Amino acid sequence: MPDDFERMWTDLAPVGRSTASGGYFRQPFTTPERELSAWFVEQCTARGLRVESDDFGNVVGWWDTGSGPAVLTGSHLDSVLDGGAYDGPLGVVSALAAVDLMRARGVVPTRPVGVSVFVEEEGSRFGLACLGSRLATGVLDWDAARVLTDRDGVALGDVVAGGSSSLLASVGTFVELHVEQGRDLVDRGAAVGVASEIWPHGRYRFDFTGAANHAGTTRMEDREDPMLTYAMTVLAANKQARLAGQRATFGRVAVEPNGTNAVPSSVTAWLDARCSTDDALAELVSVISAQASDRASRDGTSLVVTAESVSSSVAFDPALAAAVAADHEGGDWPVIPTQAGHDAGILSAAGIPTAMLFVRNPTGISHSPLEQASIPDCLVGVSALADTLERLTA
User: Which residues does UniProt assign to the signal peptide (predicted)?
Assistant: First the structure.
């Protein structure tokens, strides 16, 4: 017998969890993430879903009913470093539970329904967000993806065979349920909401280069210190994002030689920038880069900025969003934007009509062990997803 929502959630809770922080380390193709992938296949099999995978590690469990373009749902099982429990897995568990609920209601879809798991959504190992869905849609070529490396220098091509994917060939609509990664639904007093758009966002590598030297004997005026240039760049990014009402974050940094008693020779830092429009994103990164370069010239250091990934703004199909949100008990669900990236954005940009459902997060905190969602709200989300799948397959 397949497990119900609460049992599934209990089964997943300890996998990849840090005893020190309570956060999750479920990086792609590591033991915890592979354990979750095997669990997903078991759950699909218990429900009689036909399991199909591609050469990149993406998996779909198909409920082969009806005919015509399929309706796909699901999310991802990987996490950021020291992440929360709900980002990704909530959408997978809810999708399986929604299939159960539809069957309990006696629903027989007129179109096939699939439950998906896309790999490496977070980009926490190989540095490119939504890697699995990019490969599945064909917007990223395997030859370009296979050379991506993790922090230990292991290439993606060394851990997965690669090749091609036909998982999405029959998909006519995609619906992703996700925990909200902010406070919009909390402020509205709503358990669930529907996405209107995803802000454009990008990841940029800033390589600052200077000259290693002795921390004690080198006078301050004689230094070519890339850490100083980096520090001023972080402050500039914070100021410019605040002035523009946008988002800029330096959350990862690598220093060489990384010694306490040495002026660094190089600092590599990654900027995550998100803005309300594509033009605003380009302007923000340009201003930050210009201020960083100006500072480098004064510090005697050098700077190279590389755009590692940039995702344009995604406006979800407004008619589909309105249809998903409308005419529910208690009124229409709110339609809200999100500043977080999702596989749904990749599928939408690839031409697949796409909708997203959000479940309220009472803390408003995400990418952290403090990320939360109550069981009652999660069950409302399951019901909302089942309602949506019924509408789309009626």
Answer: none
pLDDT one-digit tens code per residue, 330-345: 778 999 988 888 999 9
Q: Write the single-letter amino acid at 99.
A: V
Secondary structure (3-state) at 104: helix
The pLDDT tens digits for 272-325 are 999 999 999 999 999 999 999 999 999 999 999 999 989 889 999 899 999 889
114 - beta bridge partners? 62, 72
Name residues whose C-beta falls within 8 Å of residue 141's C-beta, 6 or more positions apart in sequence. none
CA-based nearest residue to 188, from 46, 91, 325: 325
Q: Where are the domains of the chain?
A: 5-199+313-393, 201-311
CATH superfamily of 5-199+313-393: Zn peptidases (3.40.630.10)
- 12 phi-psi bin (left φ>0, alpha ψ -120 to 50, beta other): alpha
- Report yes or no: 76 and 88 within 8 Å, Cβ to Cβ: yes
Question: How close are the terminal C-alpha atoms of the chain, in Å?
Answer: 26
Quote the distance between the C-alpha of residue 227 and its chain's center.
29
Alpha carbon distance 171, 350 (integer Å)? 12
Pick from 341, 323, 342, 343: which is nearest to 333 by CA? 323
Q: May I ask the CATH architecture of the domain 201-311?
A: 2-Layer Sandwich (3.30)
DSSP category for residue 221: G
Of the candidates 278, 309, 282, which has an alpha carbon nearest to the alpha carbon of residue 131?
A: 309
Residue with token string 């099982």: 77
Report the 10 Å Cβ neighbour count for 356: 28
